[in-house]
Specification:
Length: about 325
C-alpha cells in the first residue's frame, strides 16, 4: 500500500462538516469567477471616446451640439483641420474615428479594428446627425478587420490563449521539467515557438490578422514569455500559493479586464486602465496595434509585458538563491 493510501486510511472518511465547508468554498469561488467575468461586460458602455471632427465654424459647433444631444457624454471631440489629419489620428490610435463634414454631406470614418462596438456607435451617431440636419451620411471603415473575420472574433478568441497559454505552459513545465536552468530554457523556447505558431494560425489559417507576421509574432512571444515567467517565478517563490496568485492576476482579473472583445476604453472606470497593466490586456493591445495599425501605440504594452517578464524572472532567481542557501545540496 502506498504512503498516500495509508495516510488516507488512517484519516478515515471526511466529516460532513468538512464536506459542507469545502463545497461552500467552491461555490464562492464559482460565484466570484462569474462576477469577475460578467460584471465588466454588463457595465460596459461607450463613454468619452476620442473622435476627430473636420468642419468649418459654425457648423463644427452644431455637430458637437448634435452629438451631445444624440449621445450625451459619449464622444470627446477634437477639431482637426483636414480629413487626412483626422485619418492620421485614427491610424495612430489617438482617436477611434472622425466626423468629416464637406459640401457633399457627412462622412463618418470608423476603425472597426480598434473596436467593432465603438465603430457601430459612431455610425449610429452619424446617421442621427445626418437625419437631424438633412444631409447624406457615408460611413467609411478606414481600418477594418480582415474580410475573413470582419468582426475580429479571432482577436478576442485567439489573443487570450496566447496570453493565458503562458500560464498553462508554466504549470506543465513545473510538473514535468526539473532543474532551474532546464525550466527557464523550456519556458523561453515555448514562448518563441508558441508565439510564432499561434500567430501563424490566426493569420494564415483563420485569417484574423493582416499585418506583418514577424512583428505580430514577436508581440505574441513577449506576451507568452511574460505570463510563463510570471507563473514560474511566483510558484518558485510562494509555492502553491504562487500558482493561485498568478491565476488571479491572469485569469480572474486579466481576462475580463483585457477589453479584447470590445475596447478597454468602454469598460467601467478605472477597470479598463487597470486591465491594460496586466499581461492579457497588454498582449491583446500589442497584437491589435501591431496587426492592424502598423505598430502604432505599442510602447506602453511592450513596457508592461517587459516588466512582468523581468518581475517573474527576478522572483524565480531570488527564490532559487534562497532555496540554495537553505539547502546547498538541492538540485534546484
Amino acid at each position: 500500500m502506498s504512503a498516500q493510501a495509508m495516510e488516507q486510511a488512517q484519516q478515515g472518511p471526511s466529516s460532513w462538516k468538512k464536506i459542507a465547508g469545502v463545497t461552500s468554498l467552491l461555490i464562492v469561488v464559482i460565484v466570484v469567477f462569474l462576477v469577475a467575468f460578467a460584471l465588466p461586460s454588463i457595465n460596459s458602455e461607450v463613454k468619452h471616446i476620442a473622435v476627430g471632427l473636420v468642419a468649418p465654424e459654425p457648423l463644427a459647433s452644431a455637430v458637437i451640439d448634435g452629438l451631445d444631444v444624440a449621445s450625451p457624454d459619449t464622444f470627446d471631440v477634437t477639431i482637426v483641420e483636414s480629413a487626412s489629419a483626422a485619418r492620421a489620428l485614427i491610424e495612430e490610435r489617438e482617436a477611434f474615428g472622425a466626423f468629416v463634414v464637406t459640401a457633399n454631406g457627412l462622412t463618418v470614418e470608423t476603425a472597426s479594428a480598434a473596436s467593432y462596438a465603438v465603430a457601430t456607435a459612431l455610425g449610429a451617431a452619424g446617421q442621427q446627425i445626418g437625419a437631424a440636419v438633412d444631409v447624406p451620411v457615408t460611413v467609411d471603415d478606414v481600418v477594418p478587420f480582415s474580410e475573413a473575420d470582419p468582426r475580429g472574433v479571432g482577436l478576442s478568441a485567439g489573443a487570450l490563449p496566447i496570453a493565458l497559454g503562458g500560464w498553462i505552459a508554466a504549470v506543465g513545465i513545473l510538473s514535468a521539467i526539473h532543474g532551474t536552468r532546464q525550466r527557464l530554457i523550456t519556458a523561453g523556447v515555448f514562448a518563441v515557438v508558441g508565439g510564432f505558431a499561434l500567430t501563424a494560425v490566426l493569420q494564415f489559417w483563420l485569417g484574423t490578422f493582416t499585418g506583418n507576421y514577424w512583428l505580430t509574432s514577436l508581440g505574441a512571444v513577449l506576451g507568452i514569455a511574460a505570463t510563463s515567467f510570471l507563473v514560474l517565478g511566483m510558484q518558485r517563490m510562494f509555492k502553491a500559493a504562487g500558482i493561485v496568485m498568478a491565476a488571479i492576476i491572469l485569469v480572474l482579473l486579466g481576462n475580463p479586464l483585457s477589453g479584447l472583445s470590445s475596447a478597454p476604453e468602454i469598460l467601467p472606470e478605472p477597470w479598463g486602465a487597470i486591465g491594460q497593466l496586466l499581461p492579457p490586456g497588454a498582449t491583446g493591445t500589442l497584437l491589435r496595434n501591431t496587426a492592424f495599425f502598423d505598430g502604432a501605440a505599442t510602447t506602453m504594452p511592450i513596457i508592461v509585458l517587459a516588466i512582468w517578464f523581468v518581475f517573474g524572472l527576478g522572483l524565480y532567481l531570488l527564490a532559487v538563491a534562497r532555496d540554495r542557501r537553505r539547502d546547498p545540496a538541492a538540485i534546484e
